[in-house]
TrEMBL record, chains A, B:
This is LacI family transcriptional regulator. It comes from Actinoplanes italicus. The keyword Iron does not apply. Pfam families: LacI, Peripla_BP_3. Keywords: DNA-binding, Transcription, Transcription regulation. Residues 3-56 form the HTH lacI-type domain. InterPro entries: HTH_LacI, LacI/GalR-like_sensor, Lambda_DNA-bd_dom_sf, Peripla_BP_I. It comes from the Bacteria. GO terms for molecular function: DNA-binding transcription factor activity; transcription cis-regulatory region binding.
Length: 326, 326
DNA sequence: TTGAAAGCGCTAACAA
DNA sequence: TTGTTAGCGCTTTCAA
């Protein structure tokens, strides 16, 4: 049988309420507290969070819902959340929905009643579904914005702009864009960034939508080579990696024949051949900030107030981008 | 205020115990059950798992402890666990210890009292520490074996043998081995596999230990080139990727000059340049089996009985291995 | 400062 | 088959 407050109280010769107070910071005499703490430690007492939560109404846990842990982007976000959670002694329920909007909604339904709040990362469900399923008071969206819910996002529009400006500065005038899932928030943000450019001295060539995966990038490779572009901006790093792979197979040297720029700057970006120029978005920081928002630790802002945090993006230049062919 | 059994009972005109029975599969008349279920659904009732756990002694949750979610190997394991957990309606507490043995032990201490069991993946702590911290009754080790605790591991010795045999069949006679963290279980297993070969017509050249990361592989690249080997076996895929990167930078063509074989077959392995030959270990399956063991769903075996599951490994041949230079 | 007692939401005896 | 009741381990009134 595990140690309970009862055991500690008996061993310390005080009442259970005194034990409780001593351990949670109530008013107890220093001597009593010291004694109780010592006994609790000696007995290896670990409070039952469930029982505590039952009465306080706070479980000390929160839920993190991600589409796919295997995607390094989400792994990074999860890392940021768990790191911060450990620092504030908060448990994290993880739910990997496998990119399934239905599983996502179910996870929200289960977790919202068994946690103090939910961190919903890049949800695939529609705005209306999310609004219906989530409690605005204790839900924070990560990397997605839905009116009526708190969110922490990166400045994707600006990031996209930085990427294009970088390519333009290098001399590129025709830039292909490989798009991700149509109708997704992230896709629309990227297009918004692109829209500020087309015209001028620059031409953006839409290559179409592919799955936001390595295979999607491979698929896009041939399409890009067939287009009159000297550079290509990919939906994300995974797509860019697939692109790199296919271009190499087709004998197109990067960046001599074609410059490639990715998005997200996941850890893989530095491992590709050549290393990938990419728009860096603060992934783990977004997770940590989301958690603070949920727990009301983010200074004046809280999730309940409908906070909208926008984090800056920065372009990380590596070897996959260079001057266009002469 | 959220809906409780009380609310459902009142609305359905029955007692709380009837509601409880109707919802958890006790003996109730079909008509009553139907009515209760309907009301519960209408009211959006979600049982409070904490309260339930308080009385049943089972929380319906388990803990998953991994060294680093950013490592694709652990992401895969986590994926296997969460997928299976979702199927059996079990919550998963995740804890990323950041490769810190102390954090690991702390996580065990916290989780063992607030979950039905712990899945401990590739722990970094010592055998004795783990034995002291964990409850053998409801702890399952993943990819690590400690006498006295249940475990699910891959047949690393055999996997290593397959890799070497593959290289020998290609004609290699001098194979470099880049080792991982000294004194780790995984490292010892690999060395055991290697030990069955040295001598014969084959020479294994130990290159030394590096961090099990991309950077570790980059570091090892030069060492490998300086050795008289025609092939190199890396501690894991991340190291192999770093190796590939450094070899390319040094102008050594893979596999013409040197064959490279990785370990784990993480998703990146297929994305490298050239695609990496790697020993595939069943990562997500290990996670799923571990969960079943913990929950007593793995047929006759349970964690409590000290189960030791060994999963087969298979070599996946890709383009990074070929015949040795003439 | 301390203790007694109530009760969080739920399930599991025990009766009816 | 159903309802009543007693807790699970904890915190928090309320008195002392």
């Amino acid at each position: 049988m595990r140690t309970t407050v009862q055991d500690v109280a008996r061993a310390a010769g005080v009442s259970v309420s005194t034990v409780s107070r001593a351990l949670t910071g109530g008013s107890v005499s220093p001597a009593t507290r010291e004694a109780v703490v010592a006994v609790a430690h000696r007995l290896g007492y670990q409070p039952n969070r469930a029982a505590r939560g039952l009465i306080t109404g706070r479980t000390g846990n929160l839920g993190l819902i991600v589409p796919d842990l295997r995607n390094p982007f989400f792994a990074d976000v999860a890392k940021g959340v768990t790191a911060r959670a450990r620092a504030v002694d908060c448990g994290v329920f993880i739910s990997d929905t496998d990119e399934d909007p239905v599983a996502e909604l179910e996870a929200i339904a289960t977790l919202r009643h068994n946690t103090d709040g939910i961190l919903l990362c890049s949800p695939r469900a529609k705005d209306a579904e999310l609004l219906a399923a989530a409690d605005p008071q204790n839900t924070v969206l990560l990397h997605r914005r839905v009116p009526g819910l708190s969110s922490v996002v990166a400045d994707i529009v600006d990031g996209t702009r930085q990427a294009v400006q970088h390519l333009r500065a290098l001399g590129h005038r025709r830039i292909a864009y490989v798009s991700g899932p149509e109708d997704s928030w992230a896709t629309r943000q990227r297009l918004a960034g692109l829209a500020t450019f087309d015209g001028d001295d620059l031409e953006i060539l839409p290559i179409g939508s592919v799955a936001p995966t390595f295979d999607g990038g491979v698929l896009a490779g041939d399409l890009v080579l067939a287009a009159p572009a000297t550079a290509v901006l990919a939906y994300n790093d995974l797509v860019a990696m697939g692109l790199l792979h296919r271009l190499a197979a087709r004998g197109a040297v990067v960046p001599d024949r074609l410059s490639v720029v990715g998005y997200d700057d996941v850890s893989l970006a530095g491992m590709s051949h050549p290393p990938l120029t990419s728009v860096s978005v603060p992934k783990d920081r977004a997770g940590a900030i989301g958690l603070d928002l949920l727990l009301g630790r983010a200074g004046s802002m809280t999730a309940a107030q409908g906070a909208e945090v926008i984090l800056p993006t920065t372009l990380v230049v590596r070897a996959s981008s260079g001057e266009p062919p002469a």
